[in-house]
Every structure is written in structure tokens, then in C-alpha cells.
## 1
Amino acid sequence: MALRNAPFWLLVLLAVALRDSCDGASSHSLKYFFTSILEPSQGLPHFVTVGYVDDQLFSYYDSNIRREQPRVSWMEKVGKEDPQYWDRNTQTSHGDEEDFRHHLEILRNRYNQSEGFHTLQRMYGCELRSDGKKGGFYQYGYDGRTYITFDKETLTWVAPDPQAQITQRKWDADPGWSQRKKIYLEEICIEWLEKHLSYGNETLLRTEPPVVTMSSRTEVEDGMETHVCRVHGFYPREIDASWTRDGEVWLQDTLYASVAPNADGTYHYWISIWVDPKERGRYRCRVEHDSLQDPLDLELKEPTDSKSNLGLIIGFVVAALVVVGVIAGIVVFINRRQEDYNAVPTSWSHLGEMDVIEVKS
């Protein structure tokens, strides 16, 4: 279900945050994103929380609706097993909403800024990789820049500027506070991730094989050929699509897009390459995915309809440039390789500014 009540720029931030590399084997993650806005545009919520299992939105709360809501049918199982689940998380979100409003004012004064549009963000969660390794992160951002980040390996907090270092010193002064964060990210969060995967196993653990097609055109100016390999309808998101030359991965003269979602919950992706037509037979589009027993290798074909393919390829390139332009216009503090989400029915508290942490269940 779409985030109908969220501002457009928030959706872009979330899209960047959720974007993963196209390489590598499947992994699973729980993610939670909090955004508080000081003086938002009329009608927009000043506080939004979204929860993700992998990249599927499963819960939503904002300051207009004032209620934590499920966004996928399989979350109904949670309510049946734990009737207080949504009430408990609604109360947690109410507390977060008030805390974030208070902390925004603190930071605005700390940075000696005037009133107006300001944002405070928090994200945390965990990842379970296919090799059994676990990942986790916890961090804040202010006005689109990193404010403070937790390093769970050293049990310390990293702050990039003097204003954030005030908070850093408070949190580093309590080793037990940081140890609890590490335990949560590596143990409790992983337990909830596995539980949610069991709830939504029919959709989250399914596989859909990709449909791979090729299109091409001849450049009028120099006679070179442009070939586009399109991969459509696959799930899960992780996929390895590359050009090979004589059996080896070939990165030269290539253009890559980002993996993008389809309306049916699957994904699509494309890569293009410029080649000398005399060497066309040396190249292949290779696709590897969890749904495939063996990689797919498609050979390049001689262009047959240059004009129709020209419009298609231009459309691909323009679309890629538009996406890059939008993302570049928004300074995102999110590290995309981090993964996340949380879930326990209680909260952890710690004295000081910006350090009340409510953990979603």
C-alpha cells in the first residue's frame, strides 16, 4: 500500500535508503524509519514512521492518523497472536512523536537556526545475510545530514560536528547504554526478523524468475551499436546482471540502472553497452538470480529497427538521469548498506537530550 499521507521528498529518501546493490545473494532485513518535520506544509504530517520487512512496507504511522496501521495482509497474524500489538506500538509512536518534536527544538537552538522547515530522522535495524552473518545499525540525521551514528563493533558513537558531539559525549559516558544497543541489533531484532519472515513467508520467501529481453540500435554518427538488456518480473530483489566479453565480466562502455519495483511486487532492471558491430559476437548479457538453476546468457543480435529502439533507449537514459537528479538534490544521511528494524514490547530510556529510544515490536 502506498504512503498516501507522506510528503514526496520523504518517499525519495526512503527509496534511496532501501536501495540495495544488485549484486550478491539474498538477505533479509527489518527496517524502521522515523521522520519529524518542524513547520511542515499545510496538511502534511509533522511525524511519520514506516516499518519494512526487506523492502515491503508492513506498518505505518503518522501524526494525522494517530494510529499504527498494518500495510500487508500477513500482519493480521501478528494481531491474532498478540491482540495488544498495534495498541502497544501506537502508544510507542505517540511517545516518539512528542520526543521528536522536543528534540527538533533543541537542535534548532543548538545550531542557532531560525524557525522554519527542519527535519530530524532516525533509522535503525538489522540484517540476516545468506551466509549467516548479521548486520545492524542505529543513527540519527538532522536537516538531511548525519547527526550521530552508532558503531556497534566499538560500542561508541560517531558525531561529525561540534553540536552533535555534545550528544556523543553523553552517550559514550554510559557503556551499558551502548551494550544494550548492540544486544538489541544482533539478537532481539534478528529474532523479530525471523518471526516476521515466518508471518509473510508466502510473499517474502518466494522466488520469481526474470524475463530477459534484448533491444539494440546502430549509432548514425560512428556506426557503433547500443544494446540494452532488460530484466523484468523477478523476485527477490537481489540480482546479478552484467555484460561479459569472451566469458569475462566487461565494465567498459556500459551503463547501469537501479533495480526498480513493479506494481505486482516484482522488480525490473536494465543495463546497456556500446560495442563495435565487428565484435558483437564476443559479448553476452549474463543474468544470475536465486530463481535460476543456471545463469542466463543472451547473445547480442544485429539491430533490426534502429528508429524504434532509439526512442526506447533514450527513454531509459532520460529516466535514469531524472532519478539521479532528484536523489542528488536531496542530501541523504542514510547509509544504504545498513539494514534494520526493531521489535520488543518495552522501551529503553537514557537520561539526556535526544536519547529516549522506543523500540517497536
Note: The radius of gyration is 23 Å.
## 2
Amino acid sequence: MSEVFATTGTIAAIATAVVPQQGSVGIVRVSGERAMAIAQTLFSAPGRQVWDSHRVLYGYIRCPQTRRLVDEALLLLMRAPRSYTREDVVEFHCHGGIMAVQQVLQLCLENGARLAQAGEFTLRAFLNGRLDLTQAESVADLVGARSPQAAQLALVGLQGKLADPIRRLRGRCLDILAEIEARIDFEEDLPPLDFKVIISEIEHVAAEISKLLATKDRGELLRTGLKVAIVGRPNVGKSSLLNAWSQSDRAIVTDLPGTTRDVVESQLVVGGIPVQVLDTAGIRETTDQVEKIGVERSRRAANAADLVLLTIDATAGWTAGDQEIYAQVQDRPLMLVINKIDLVQALDFTSLEYPQTINQIVPTAAAKNQGIDALETAILEIVQAGKIQAADVDLAINQRQAAALVKANIALIQLQTTIDEQLPLDFWTIDLRDAVHALGEITGEEVTESVLDRIFSKFCIGK
């Protein structure tokens, strides 16, 4: 049995980020049968404070052997089953930083707890029926959310709004399965199956599965964000564009070509979508070994990007160098950014020649912070048009859930083939059981140890 699945004993972990000289509070969380005993061993509450569930006590954490004072703290008590894990849970709310929480954690480990595995608190919540598997995954999504919309999407899943339609579909499949198996076992005592009703039900379930599958790309974009690479010849204003867009001086800007030697990154949020912007080195042929490495990294960044912003200099127009770069990135989702329009006449800008296959053009004057709003609007238009991925916060499945839905859909397609070929009812039940099993994988009603390993190993320790 894997370490993630071994959920016996009492576990402890630091449940907050540990950063030197930052954070006013640090929390050590303990869950399991010895949680209360450990709290009573380490914590002394002066006066007549009542040790009762869902109360906060004030007091001191001491080493039980030496009575050395470790921290002045608060203690939160949560008796089973009214806790996150449905076990006894205590939390030591210590002073922030490094030393206090680490010393308290060490005392917990010395007095009957073991260090929690990654995601083990949430795994226990799942195994004890506190959360289903979609809710557990939403916990991880909420912790890792990079935009308000991504957080909202995670909250929708945490409230069970994804699990509910999955359970309804699984329930309908189980009802159909029961009807068929009843006819197999008690054919003479029951009226014959209404094949039209059965087929209609199957088609309805398949249609609902297809609707859920259509949300995968929407959710993936909000969860992971959009990677945008700014590429172009040296000195066309790529670094100025990054600085104006991020409202910072992330990239060094000079009049000398080749200033940027490596990929410079900035994290932004555009229309609720996390955007990772990569300012790349100017792409050109060079004998400078360091610059050559930067150019190669620029090409790799462009090939890995969800969207390429091919940036050109309005004063130079479309050059042979621009054409060469375009040939390397034209198979990617692409937008043409015509920079430095403040240095040319409007007529000169509109008469620029560029490949007619480029249909998204945004003029900017990055050095003067002009055109950034238009750039963001154009990016959102590409997203909404589905050229990259669509964004919606109603409901969205992740990759694991999508794989299970695809298996369910394949089983239902096979079932329809089985019906069309007029095979015996026993064959119908095989396909239906496959669909029921696949749908159960999503919520955790049908789950394997390897699936749990894969899901919870991605969690942080303490959650």
C-alpha cells in the first residue's frame, strides 16, 4: 500500500507558509485519535477556560519534559466528526516566522504524531465521507488559484455543483441497468422492456456527458492560465512592451539591440485569465555565443506559447528579418503588434505591408504606455473566439474527470451498437457497468489506490 493511502495514526503538519520575518500567524494542524492528548500535553490554558469542541483557548506551549516555554499561542479544538477530516483535530495558532511553528511541530512528532504526507488531511476528509473526489480536487484548485475567476471555479466544485450532475447521470445508468437485469432474472414475471424509452434515456445521458466534456478547455485555461511570448527582431520594443503591460521595470530597456539575453517573465491577469508573459531575446543571426543561447531560448519559448505576439517596428516596416521570424512561428496562434507608432505618421502606419494571413493587428507605443488596453481586448477576443481556449466560470472539469467521462461516453456508444445489433441483454449490462464505473471514478464512488496517489500527491503538505 502506498504512503499516501496509509492513513492510520495521528498526523501533524505546518498548515501555513513558513517565510522568515513574514506572516503574523503560523498554524500547526494535528488530526487523529491522539490529537486531543497531544494538545493537553503541550498546551496549558490559564484560568478556567473550558476544553470543549469548537472553542479557542489562549495559553502557552511548553516542552513537556523541561517545561521550557516554546510559544504563547491560541489553540483551536474540533472534535470528531465536526472537523475537516471528521477526526479529532487541533490547531496550534503560533507566532509567524520559522522557529515557533517548527518547534511546535517537532513537539507534536515527539508526542505521538507522525508527519503528514502531501494532501493527507484532505485524503482523510475524502475517505471519511467529508468530501467527494471532485470536492477534494477543488480544494487543491482553490489553494493554487491564480485569479478571482479561477478561485470562483474552484468554489463551485467545492460546493458539489460538479458532483451533483455526475451522480444524477450515474443514477440514471444504474436505473437502466436495474431494469435490464430484472428482465434477465425475472423475464416471465415482468412486462417486456420498452426499447424506445431505454434508447432515449441512453441518448440523454450521452448528450449530458458531451456537455460536460465541452467545459474542459474553459476550466483548463482558468486553472493554468495563458502563456504569451513576445517575439521579434532586436530593438523593436519587446522589453518596453513587457514593462508597459506589467507596469513595472521587469526588463532592461536600452537603444542597443540585443540587450535582452534571456527570457524575462511576468505574471498578469487579463479579463480574469492568468497570463504568463515572456519577453524573449531578439531573434537574429549572431556570432555572440551568449546572445545565440538567448535566441535559441526565444525560439523554444515561442513554440511552447499559447499565443505569440510578433512585434515589429513601425519606423522600419515589415522587414526580411520579420518575415524570417514569422516563418518560424506562423503555425502558432499569432497576433501582430506594430510598436513605436508614435514615431511615424498615421498614414505610414496604415500602409505597412505584412502577410495577409495575419488578421489580428494591434498598434502600440509601448514607451508611452499606449495601446495596452487594445492589446488585452484583442487577446480576450481571440480567447472568446475559441482560437486558443474559451473561458467560463459556470462549471468546468479537469483532465482526470474528462478522461473518465470519455470512457463513459465510449461505453454508451458501444451500448448503442450492441442494441442496434440486437445482441442479448447480458451484453447490454457489460457496457452499462463500464459507464457506471467510469462515472463513479469522477466522484470517488469507484476509485483505485493509484488514482488517489496521483491526485493527493499534488497537494501541499498540511492540506
Note: The first strand starts at residue 11 and ends at 14.
